[in-house]
Amino acid sequence: MGKIIAVINQKGGVGKTTTAVNLAACLAYKKKKTLLVDSDPQCNATSGLGVEREGLSIYDCLADADKTPSAIIPTAYSELYILPSSSDLSGAEIELAYEEEREFFMKKALSRIKEDYDFIIIDAPPALGMLTINIMTAADSVIIPIQCEYYALEGLGQLMASMRSIKKRLNPQLEIEGVLATMYDGRTNLSIQVLEEIKKFFPDKLYKTVIPRNIRLSEAPSYGEPIIKYDVTSKGADAYFGLAKEVIDNNGGRKKGG
Question: What is the pTM of this model?
């Protein structure tokens, strides 16, 4: 069975989509069959891999789980697939609220294809609404990206409370996969101080890998490419290769069926 990892932070601008896209690409580069699920109505993970938004999307799969296999698109990169998003997903919050078992639609959609992949990476929207609840109910674990800037830990208490509630009521297996420091600039005291605060808050879950501020990481999405395609020699590419290695090592070198 595949491992479903959601990349979640209700704050915007923390490197969530950048992490989802580039972690998925690096896992695939390391020969792990990987599916990226774009669950953000802004569709940035979809465009970040240069995929045109046409045909079925995750929105259709939430409405009918049988459509999931048909909605998955192979990308230009070996071992990397995407389940694209759609702007229609913005209405899912309201639509799901009136459904029975409304927290389980994502889980039903992904259960059809989970065993086909080593890793399924979900890019979650920057909110703690019904869609994110669905994602955490479906996921095995969560990666929390935290930017090394002012107010970095703001709102994390609410996220952790939501996770505890979902673990208790809906998904007993849900765990923190890891916490990722992003937008780090070692030349500034602020970044150094914030990283120390994150270590205190998550002493056992912080990845050794730190994602630096890197102009090439910022440029890559506008070209519809992950960083390892746009500039494999960049510090950003090195960092996401390091993160992928940590994720693989933490999961026992996971391979399909293992």
Answer: 0.95
